[in-house]
User: Fold this.
Amino acid sequence: MTTIRVPATSANLGPGFDSIGIALELYLTVTIAETRADWLIEHEMGADVPSDEHNLIIKTALALIPDLEPHRLIMRSEIPLARGLGSSSSAIIAGIELANQLGDLDLTQYDKLQIAVKLEGHPDNVAPAIYGGFVTATYDDVEADAISAPFPAARALTFIPDAELLTSASRAILPEKVSLRAAVATSSAANVLVAAVLRGDLELAGRMMERDQFHETYRETLVPHLEQIRDRARDAGACGTYLSGAGPTVISMVPPAEAEEILDELQQLPLAGHWLNLAVAPAGLMVEA
Ligand SMILES: Nc1ncnc2c1ncn2[C@@H]1O[C@H](COP(=O)(O)OP(=O)(O)O)[C@@H](O)[C@H]1O
Ligand SMILES: N[C@@H](CCOP(=O)(O)O)C(=O)O
Assistant:
């Protein structure tokens, strides 16, 4: 049986709003079983996640090939829903790959990115889910381009709140316009962040992660724990702390040797949620026969 495996993602990394993201070592897997009369996707993600053709994975596949032959699918996911760790982008990428496998479409990574970005609207979570590692990407409503590179040795200390926050709700709070001053400050920080990552300079990249004025400023009211974690993480020796994707998850990037000590310190914060100590996933979408 063929299994499709897609990593979680963490988009934005502070100033890289809608253009920078990383893949993380938490996975969605979808195994393609036998054909049947109607679509069935078996999973343990609760009643809110459809088990028929209304499931996002199958809907995505059917958007590519409307008469795709129904199958039984088995889905397992370590990616929490609506937490800013790319659950919807992983489902979209899995759906595109499902159509690719069943329909013999022979899609390239570039083709998959073009389809995914049209469905998701921005490339910073779908691109790392396809390519893995650290990804910079751009989309002008016509074409998306993305480039992937290795991320410096680091651990992503990840706080996942108990409460969900839908990406649509977290985007609705953003303004139509930002000032030129804020745009220059933020885009220049994003440029330095990219250069620092390419040079393997986690300390500088981390400092740049805290220089966003495109989205975190406006989302603060939805995620009051961001500042709390950032302050404590800074004191404990983290390189940088940012809102993962549209939130509410918050990630502190730390040197591997200090990860356990910093995590112990962060876990003292009285917050409703749990912590994970994650690695950046060097590979994106994979298919195992
Ligand atoms: N594996 C999945 N199967 C079906 N639907 C999914 C899956 N993962 C995510 N979704 C859908 O995507 C929604 C979350 O998307 P979104 O608000 O963009 O949050 P996230 O930051 O997790 O991507 C879920 O409420 C669900 O409707
Ligand atoms: N740039 C987007 C990223 C959304 O990522 P998600 O993982 O939360 O879906 C945004 O900040 O809205």
